[in-house]
């Protein structure tokens, strides 16, 4: 609880870039199953992702209903004008006024790393999913080259206002530990893919050759994961 409380205080005191709560995160659209009609977005900010997903899917003839959950009331007020429903709540402390087993997909874009116990939270989220429903998430990669370079060559671990070492992050993950997080939560991982490449150039290519490809994951700033809740015959 002390860590969680500290995390909330840090979130309120750190000045975030303007885009932080507004970004539509279009790179995550393709991970949301096309059959998903009822979507629950955790940490929806000002509703940029959900609103744009509704627009894009609507143009393709797919109507989706998006419920958002947001901790900051002022952000939630903006999201409420863009999404179908918005709840102001802390997912680790508050009971959510949601119907069990009613959502096709839950989306957590860069949310789980801010939680004290993401393991317990995603297991709890399963109760809101229909059998065979999906949980889609993006999670920062702590093996990202920028972090490794700071540790290996500069002997530093410098917290920042955003990014992998965002000062409000409480948990850090690699590709393997992301898979383990969801498996321990009762899900089966169907897709786990690096996104947002931030490393290029000859130095990285040299590292790839010297490591026989074992360091390929350090070029990704984040990973996208698509995990299935037990039951049902859904596909992606």
Question: Describe it for me?
Answer:
This protein has 236 residues and is α/β, with parallel strands linked by helices. It has helices at residues 2-13, 48-59, 73-79, 118-125, 145-153, 175-184, 202-210, and strands at residues 38-42, 65-70, 85-88, 103-109, 129-140, 188-197, 220-228. The longest helix is centred in the first third of the chain and has 12 residues, at 2-13.
Helical percent range?
25-40%
**Structural class by sheet pairing and helices:** alpha/beta
Order of strands across the biggest sheet? 3-2-1-4-5-7-6
| Count of individual helical segments | 7
Mean pLDDT: 88
Largest sheet composition: 7 strands, mixed
- The percentage of residues in β strands lies in 15-25%
* Poorly predicted runs of 5 or more residues: 1-13
Radius of gyration: 18 Å
Taken from the alpha-carbon principal axes, the silhouette is globular
Taking the alpha carbons of the first and last residues, their distance comes to 37 Å
According to DSSP, the number of beta strands is: 7
Helix-strand string? HEHEHEEHEHHEHE
